[in-house]
Task: structure prediction
Amino acid sequence: MPRYRYPVIPESEVTPKAVFDNRRHFLRQGFAVGAAVMLAPSMFLTKNAHAWADVLKPALESDLPSQELAGGEALTDFRDATTYNNFYEFGTGKRDPEVFAHNLPVDPWSITLEGELDKTGAIPLEDILKRHSLEERIYRLRCVEAWSMVIPWIGIPLADLLNHHGLTSRSKYVEFESLYDPDNLRGQRRSIIDWPYREALRIDEAMHPLTLLAVGMYGEKMPNQNGAPIRLVVPWKYGFKSIKSIAKIRILEEPPTTSWQARNPEEYGFYANVNPDVNHPRWSQARERRIGESGRRETLMFNGYGDEVAHLYKGMDLQKHY
Ligand SMILES: Nc1nc2c(c(=O)[nH]1)N[C@H]1C(S)=C(S)[C@@H](COP(=O)(O)O)O[C@H]1N2
Ligand SMILES: [Mo]
Result:
């Protein structure tokens, strides 16, 4: 993509791999046809590999509306954003996701919507991509571990998806679940957290126009290590709220417990709004290390998005509701 300095892979290298993948796919289909004569025809209906990728590709190549919402700060290098990650499904080391996330089975993909909605069920990702238009948002990302990045995401507002499925008067919280697949996600064979990874937002946070369901970054489809094929981005909250590889969205009347709350409620609250005045019990949150920069910069209240989101927390004691 011409917009960024760090394309994922040069076009010349992409083509042979795509050809290779197609051939493999073709061979597999060939076997399936041969063996399927005596099987139910329904097995053909479940195979729809590449369907979402085929919708996403032309959309990413079109001219997307773009909003710069990181105060003009420089983008983090693509290389840093894809090699320094938290994705505990692949291990707790920062390089583990880059090394192991090729095992993430992203195709086909659907999100199951449950709970307090008019329309529920498993929705293929291609249907979501066809129904809603993509946009680019450049946001700061502040991890609770006191490092940060600036990332150009591409996605759809979560509100667009939820509105399509019809919220009810009992729709008070939105719970998200990442893919659970310990055979492929090696970290899930260890009890790092209570799998699957679960996060949640209050409905007004979920419906806020800044809250994005991201399917790409730096003009490309979402790299596996960043939460392919679809992940949440909530820029005013610590990074752990921005749950990756979403398989389930459940709308609830009562607040659910998130994975990090369950693991350590003293250290990780439900809200997890970026707040330089509320320290983590083990470290200060007043400053942060911007990946790619030397020294530290001041952490901004709500990660710099206070004008947009402070009204959501009016009258709340943010020391208590951390
Ligand atoms: N499923 C899942 N989602 C996750 C995580 C994780 O371990 N598993 N880590 C979170 C944390 S702590 C951060 S800081 C961000 C990191 O996103 P990035 O690797 O794309 O920068 O993802 C969040 N989403
Ligand atoms: Mo994080």
Remarks:
- Residues 12-313 form a domain with the Sulfite Oxidase; Chain A, domain 2 fold (CATH 3.90.420.10).
- Residues 5-37 have pLDDT under 50 and may be disordered.
- The radius of gyration is 20 Å.
- Residues 86, 143-145, 239-240 surround molybdenum atom (ligand 2) (CB under 6 Å).
